[in-house]
Amino acid sequence: MIIHEDKINQIFSTAKPDKEEVDSILAKSIRSLERLSLKEVATLLKVSDPELNQKIFDTALKIKELIYGNRIVFFAPLYISNYCNNNCLYCAFRQGNSISRKALNKSEILNETEALLKQGHKRVLLVAGESYHSQHGLDYILKAIDTIYNAKAGSHSIKRINVNIAPLEVAEFRKLKEKDIGTYQIFQETYHRATYKQVHLSGTKSNYDYRLEAIDRAFEAGFDDVGLGVLYGLADWKFETMALIEHIEHLESKFGIGPHTISVPRIEQATGAPYTENIPHKVSDSDFKKLVAVLRLAVPYTGIILSTRESPLIRRELLKLGISQISAGSRTNPGGYGKTDESIGEQFSLGDHRSLDEVVYDLLEMNFLPSFCTACYRLGRTGLDFMEYARPGDIRKKCEPNGLITFREYLNDFATLKTKESGEKKIQEWISDYDDPKVKNRINKYFRCIDAGQRDIFI
Ligand code: SAM
Ligand code: SF4
């Protein structure tokens, strides 16, 4: 058994969020930058005193700055098919829902990818419904990965494909791994077994354990880069957050490594999806901020992903609490970027409709560095290697320069004039902050190469 509800409830009910205890957890977490225990997480989740909560937020920001600096990594979801055999009551793609269905063909996938490349994206998250049909099953997805990697817009191509698809068998995971994908992502949706049963009416996904054990099978197949997540709103958010940590404890003890990323979607409005009309455990904005901050403290080296489900306002606030990856300019209907057919059903409504360029500009205003870097994955710095490597000192020597180099490329090739001017100014400010003249000179040398037309430089 991976998730023990009784144990979680018992730890939660006995945790005492008094000031001394909370202070000592926060001091430990910033000192050691190590994962917190279930009891420590429960203690932080139970804090209600506004002053103590502010301390949690402040410490989360410090940890984020130590590990990630001011970089925010961009990605775009690429929905290739909305055919689905499952019946998840929160999703518009569910089998029982009558929406216009589509599995993009090769030229439509190329069209989508080119549209994303022209915006400046380098990293996509391939998303699909779960179909048992031979025309939109695993083989279809594997071919789609090849198509996306082979797409070109001028000298630009997609450098990393992460994948969010239904759980596979070990042998199938091996086939997926052979395609050189980045992260395999899967959200348990809810760790609460009874709720899980109520919302997943039919299809393979109605099997809680099969889904929960998917990451174990992915590791057995050789993956070392996986992403977990909870669909917040189905069950109590504090329980879900504790259970997520218990899932991570399980992975660490069995495989010696936890997830590379955690996603924190909140349920959004979706056509024909009853659980989006009346969300049973709706998470307020303030609780949402709290859970992101607690996750930042609990698993300092795990990236936290936020999508365009959320509004610009809440996205801005969460960036300061622990989010390290965001999407921008997203569409959740297959064909949405290349405008294949506007009548094709989307998965859920978006909260942020801004273009990538507008989001980039906004990040600059907040002094964040928009990064399009994919170096770690391409240099094999994944899994345990990534954890070893992602120590604060090394990040400043490699990740920040890589972020700056990829951002310079973005500014030269894709930015509007307004973003370019703001970006150039920021770049000069950031470079002048470097104490080590060698690193400074190196970055400036790479900038000259980019200005001379060289592309795809990373260290
Ligand atoms: N079909 C596969 C599955 O369910 O695992 C993978 C893709 S599914 C489209 C990706 C994720 O979208 C789901 O895991 C779920 O968390 C999220 N999702 C579904 N409906 C949503 C909604 N109404 N609001 C926000 N996220 C939603
Ligand atoms: Fe299908 Fe995934 Fe939507 Fe469930 S969440 S209905 S499995 S696409």
Q: What are the SSEs and their pairings?
A:
Layout (H helix, E strand, L loop, with lengths): L4 H10 L4 H14 L5 H9 L3 H19 L2 E11 L24 H14 L3 E6 L9 H13 L9 E5 L5 H9 L5 E2 L7 H7 L8 H5 L1 H7 L5 E4 L7 H19 L5 E3 L10 H4 L7 H14 L4 E4 L5 H8 L5 E3 L28 H10 L3 E3 L3 H4 L4 H7 L2 H22 L3 H16 L4 H15 L8
Parallel strand pairs: 1-2, 1-8, 1-9, 2-3, 3-4, 4-5, 5-6, 6-7, 7-8
Iron/sulfur cluster binds next to loops.
Give your account of this protein's structure:
It is a single chain. α4 packs across α13 (285-298) and α18 packs parallel to α20 (437-451). The protein has 459 residues and is an alpha/beta fold. Strands 1-2-3-4-5-6-7-8 form an 8-stranded parallel beta barrel, surrounded by 5 helices. The protein folds into 3 domains: 5-65; 71-382, TIM Barrel; 390-451, no CATH class. The protein is globular, with a radius of gyration of 21 Å. The chain is built from 20 helices and 9 strands. The chain has helices at 5-14, 19-32, 38-46, 50-68, 106-119, 138-150, 170-178, 193-199, 208-212, 214-220, 237-255, 274-277, 285-298, 312-319, 356-365, 375-378, 383-389, 392-413, 417-432, 437-451, and strands at 71-81, 123-128, 160-164, 184-185, 226-229, 261-263, 303-306, 325-327, 369-371. It binds S-adenosylmethionine and iron/sulfur cluster. Iron/sulfur cluster is lined by residues 84, 86, 88, 91, 93-94, 129-130, 205.
